[in-house]
Amino acid sequence: MKIAVLAPICWRTPPRHYGPWEQVASNITEGLVKRGFDVTLFATGDSLTRAKLKYICERPYEEDKTLDPKVWECLHIAHMMECADEFDIIHNNYDFLPLTYSRLINTPMVTTIHGFSSPRIIPVFKQYNDHSWFVSISNADRSPELEYVATVYNGINVAGFTLKEAVGGYLLYFGRIHPDKGTHEAIQIAKKFNMRLIISGFIQDQRYYEKKVRPFLNDKIVYVGNSGPEKRDTLLGHAYALLHPINFAEPFGLSVAESMLCGTPVVAFNKGSMPELIVQGKTGFLVDTVDEAVSALKNIRQIDRKYCRRWAERHFSQEKMVDDYIEVYHKILDNNYP
User: Fold this and answer.
1) CA distances from residue 86 to 108, 211, 296, 329 in whole angstroms, order as listed
2) Strand runs (DSSP E) across 8-50, as ranges?
3) For the packed helices 254-261 and 20-34, what is the interaxial angle rounded to 10 degrees?
4) pTM for the full model?
5) What does 286-315 look like in DSSP terms, one character per residue?
6) Domains in the chain with CATH codes
7) Which of helix, strand or coil describes residue 280?
8) How confident is the model over 3-17, as pLDDT tens digits?
9) Intervals of the chain under pLDDT 70
10) Distance (Å, whole) CA 149 – CA 137
11) Which residues contact 160 (CB under 8 A, 6 or more apart)?
12) Closest C-alpha among 295, 291, 170, 293 to residue 220
């Protein structure tokens, strides 16, 4: 089976720091190569992979502001589509735009929907629902207007995360600095619980950072910027708990699974996919308010950190994800679906 994996070009694949879609595309690609499949990754020219790499955009447009995102997205996607006949199946990790080419090629295309940026993009998915195959990354993130071939949870290279059995001495916020992700709520929780908070993540909303984050920074609330793989493992592993007080229906949440791989429990607002990732009272706590989060933190020491690791390995490993996608590919190619 010859497989094309289409990654975004916003960031490198895998990303240096931030880039969840690129990270998942990388994990799919490398996992398939490990299984012996003939894989070609379409990504930026500086991407790192053991697969064949094809590119037209040498650098990520978020790292080179001379590049116009729409221009290079169009060139990137067209480049892959012009090679479509070389493959048995295309795995699209680049949202809805590649769907608009799908009736012009003969190669079947499966699209992982990494979340809906807005309800306004759903008409594109609906238009191609009878011609493409959609995979959701959680049951919570399914649109009732679409048909799906499967739900496949995002998978992580578990070897990149180390179980730390000792309970850490600080709280951690790890994610985009944005109202959706609840950075300010994490600060409120940490202040009320009276424990040091480390904030790590890419500032996506500068105005929000200036108004809701920076004024609260001090020796007990510290912003350390973006964190790469090694620093991420250390930060997550030595934390008392990961705070994930989201203000939107998050489709998945890689940092939640990564935290549990390190043995660190998660306290999250009960929205979106969180009930699918977190086992209440066993890998963390699902709460609805800041005050409930503070109360839940008092019970963190009751959590078995080894159980957190085992749960995450069983459900969110790269191997499990790749197994599930191989099943999807065969389902499509063997005409067993729909």
Assistant:
1) 12, 51, 53, 16
2) 38-42
3) 60
4) 0.92
5) EESSHHHHHHHHTTGGGS-HHHHHHHHHHH
6) 2-155+317-333 (3.40.50.2000), 158-315 (3.40.50.2000)
7) strand
8) 999 999 999 999 988
9) 336-338
10) 12
11) 229, 233
12) 170
